[in-house]
Amino acid sequence: MKILLTGSTGYIAQRLLPVLLENGHEVYCCVRDRGRFNSQLFPDAKIIEVDFLRKETLGSIPDDIDAAYYLIHSMSSQGQDFGELEETSALNFKERIEATHAKQVIYLSGIINETELSKHLLSRKNVEEILSSKAYALTTLRAGIIVGSGSASFEIIRDLVEKLPVMITPKWLHTACQPIAIRNVVEFLTGVLLLQESYDKSFDIGGPDVLTYKQMLLRFAAVRGLKRRILVVPVMTPKLSSYWLYFVTSTSYTLAKNLVNSMKVEVICRPNNLADTLKIELIGYEKSIAMAFDKIEQNQVLSSWKDAQTSSALAKGISHYMQVPVNGCFIDKRELKITDPDYVLTRIWAIGGKTGWYYGTWLWEIRGFLDKLTGGVGLRRGRKHPQNIYPGDSLDFWRVLLASKEEKRLLLYAEMKLPGEAWLEFCLDENNVLKQTATFRPLGILGRLYWYSVLPFHAFIFKGMINNIAGKA
Question: Which residues does 340 contact at the CB level (< 8 Å), separation at least 6?
Answer without folding.
Answer: 471
